[in-house]
Amino acid sequence: MISIQSAKKEFNQILKENGVADYENNVTQIFLHILNCSRVDLLIKDSISVEEYSQTKKLVLKRADRYPLQYLIGEVEFCGNRIMVNPNVLIPRNETEQLCDMISKTADNKSVLDLCCGSGCIGLGIKANSSADVTLVDISPKALTVAKNNAKLNGLDVKVIKSNLFDKVKGKFDIIVSNPPYIKTKDLLELQPEVKNEPMLALDGEEDGYAFYRRIIDAAPKYLNQNGEIYFEYGVGQSKTIEKLLKKNFECIKILKDYYNKNRFIYAKLKDIVC
Ligand SMILES: C[S@@+](CC[C@H](N)C(=O)[O-])C[C@H]1O[C@@H](n2cnc3c(N)ncnc32)[C@H](O)[C@@H]1O
Q1: 164 CB less than 6 Å from ligand 1?
Q2: Per-domain residue ranges of the chain
Q3: CATH top class, domain 2-65
């Protein structure tokens, strides 16, 4: 048996030396995952087996290589759902929960299309917290496998469509929500090491970072019911351009802040007369 205190000290040191922020919490999370125990059990535990030590160390070393913690552990909690993640999907961000919460409050009995769904976190969050009828769309078959498994894991009944944006989507919706890829291609090389492990398909917003917003905003009027609404998440500094794109066919545009007081979401309502 190995003393858990000495193992913790060793692993904290490894992550600290490799520049992992919040390294103590990372070590705790990895222990909880390997030992499959509660925080309280971990606190009162004195020792671990050699096998548990080496399994934990293996993940700590991967984390030291800046492989994302969430991929190591394989799941995150999002809007009350358990969302499984792997390198085929973007890791759901805390901020995105706020988008989900806002929509869930108004989505009862409405139809919602989650475009670029990835793990399904947004659409599944809305489904779990409202009586909306939810459709998930992504171009990546591997991401859709994750999204379908997440729907099943949480007992949520949603439609799932493999489609290049609206290409295979039929019918109209009351709400369209999307957190599309929005990073400029030339900025992809400068991302944090952790983010570089996420799928490029989920990040690459093409030359100026607005390619997906343009395509979605142009096509959305055809897929929205009267009084239909659209919500986007976007990156730092992108709100004004997206607002301009929306103005042609949308009104009541609102730029919304995230928990960190940064402009992060935008809301708009379809105009009665669309150009
Ligand atoms: C930024 S991720 C968002 C994932 C998830 N909605 C979230 O908030 O965590 C963008 C997603 O868009 C998908 N995607 C990229 N190009 C697409 C396209 N042309 N049509 C549909 N989905 C696309 C990617 O596969 C990826 O899952």
Answers
A1: yes
A2: 2-65, 88-270
A3: mainly alpha
Separation CA 232–CA 263 (nearest Å): 11
Q: To test ligand 1's pocket by mutation, which of 76, 94, 95, 116 has the most ligand atoms within 8 angstroms of CB?
A: 116
- Ligand 1 binding pocket includes 140 (Cβ within 6 Å): yes
- Burial code (b: 16+ CB inside 10 Å, e: under 16) for 171-180 equals eebbbbbbbb
98 lines ligand 1 (CB under 6 A): no
Are the CB atoms for 233 and 179 separated by under 8 Å?
A: yes
Average pLDDT in the chain: 97
Q: Whose CA is nearest to atom 24 of ligand 1?
A: 202
180 lines ligand 1 (CB under 6 A): yes
Reported as a pLDDT band with limits 50, 70 and 90, residue 252 is very high
Q: What is the DSSP string of 150-203?
A: HHHHTT---EEEE-STTTT--S-EEEEEE----B-GGGGGGS-TTGGGS-HHHH
Domain 88-270 classified CATH 3.40.50.150?
A: yes
